[in-house]
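Notebook p. 47: complex prediction with iron/sulfur cluster.
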Amino acid sequence: MSIENRRSTRRDVLKQTAGLAGIAAVVGIAAAQPAKADGGTMSPASVGYVDKPNGTHQCSNCSLYIPGTPATANGLCKAVAGSISPTAWCQIWSPMS
Ligand code: SF4
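Predicted complex, structure tokens below:
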């Protein structure tokens, strides 16, 4: 192998390594994202989620609620994972502003 060929090979290896590092960075960023783009990641149990309102406070009038379609169907929550009933409630309920 000539010196010229060795330089080319080293250059190629460096390019490939940089490419792999870029791919690894993208995969790492994707893995850090929540499984659902709009839904939260907190477990219902960790926030005391119950499938009934707390007085007038319920998911459908919480600022973190993402309504389903139709509005009576379960939706999502920006904080809590999973299917969320519009008439449920949890300890981090937050009034709409
Ligand atoms: S009450 Fe809790 S579960 Fe329901 S939408 Fe608000 S934060 Fe989410």
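Notes: Residues 47, 49, 59, 62, 64-65, 77, 79-80, 84, 88-90, 92-93 surround iron/sulfur cluster (CB under 6 Å). Residues 1-33 form one domain.
Next step: compare against the earlier run before touching the bench.
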